[in-house]
Amino acid sequence: MAYWQVNKIKYIGPHQSLKSDLGFQYYNPEEIIGGKKMKDWLRFSVAYWHTFDQRLVDPFGDGTAIRPYDKYSDPMDQALAKVDAAFEFYDKLGVNYFAFHDRDLAPEGDTLRETNQNLDKIVDKIVEYQKTTGMKVLWNTSNLFNNPRFVAGAATSPYADIFAYSAAQLKHSLEIGKRVGAENYVFWGGREGYESLWNTDMKREQEHAARFFQMAKDYAKEIGFQAQMLLEPKPKEPTTHQYDFDAATTIAFMKEYNLDQDFKLNLEGNHANLAGHSYQHEIRVARTAGLLGSLDANQGDKLIGWDIDEYPSNLYETVAAMYEVVQEGQIGPHGGLNFDAKPRRSSFEPNDLFYGHIVGMDSFAAGLRVALKMKADHVLEDIINERYNSYNSGIGAQIEAGTVNFTDLEKYSLDKTQAQLRAATHSDHLEQIKDTINHYIIETLS
Ligand code: XLS
Ligand code: NI
Ligand code: NI
User: Are residues 246 and 160 in the same domain?
Assistant: First the structure.
């Protein structure tokens, strides 16, 4: 039985008007571009939670979603039907990866033992599908934030029984990651932060979180689960302050607790905006530290300001993100673009899930095309090399080599006139750079 009333989505090339047909305008998976197939640059992943579980609720309204497995009222029957629907969806969309939380797949029982039994039954079915389809798991993770037991956090909960339960839940999630061959394992600390400092022992909570990550890494080693471990920063929401605020904060935490050898970062566009940064900034910070792992592809609405997880459509932002990826040569060692994104509440029909992924995939594919063209033409490289040119010889080279001190620099500078110093600087012509970027976007995509 077909769950989704669409044919396989194909590359149809740029269209001039609103499409009646579903198809990719910029994403051509097998096309070799910049030395690799497009699909290998981008490694798109469907997020199970948003795509198959999300009912399109908002804080003021019930879910509006119409989904093809709604007729199954028994939760386990529905969970099993969702797996069929999911694999048909991956095939029709033409993606090779998906991502999931433990709780996305199957309902909880009253004890962890019962919960694990439900989960294993669904994972059995997923593993069977993987054998026939070759579908891979970009990452899996554990939902340690929805259930009321996590009201005050999981690893950072002030209640030791909750820490213990979280560890036990995560243990099984790692075992499942191994069974499905997940390439990465993500930790998004849903409620790992505080509501108020007045009742919080911040140091103790952060030490507990670090201990939790260390134990997770040790257990993954013990069972031979080789996924790259990733921390996903987010500054706030649901808590007032999340400990993994942004890339820089999370890197400092990783270094303080010696986690930077085993963990990298999974960065999300909407989270970057909530932290007051651009997505590009977060990716640059991670790259600079050698800790770029993977990307959650979505965008926020700057006028709303919540984590609304829109499908990416802003070409300027996807160009900037892919510019960083192209400079890096890849997203991360095992990274991909996971659509941590959902349709708007008013886009409630099943096919809107395809439209959402298509605009997201096309936007990143377009971004990749533009970024590669800019790189081929050395547009920004030349500008940047020129800008730092004074460090390549003379006093600049001595500063970088560490062969001069303050006394030497005083001697060098003491009699320089203001006119000489002004002559040492140059206009950045930033407006011209932006005009050039616009030109590359329009030229490459038309
Ligand atoms: C929520 C997070 C979440 C993680 C996975 O804001 O983005 O979806 O990616 O737990
Ligand atoms: Ni995310
Ligand atoms: Ni998010």
Answer: yes
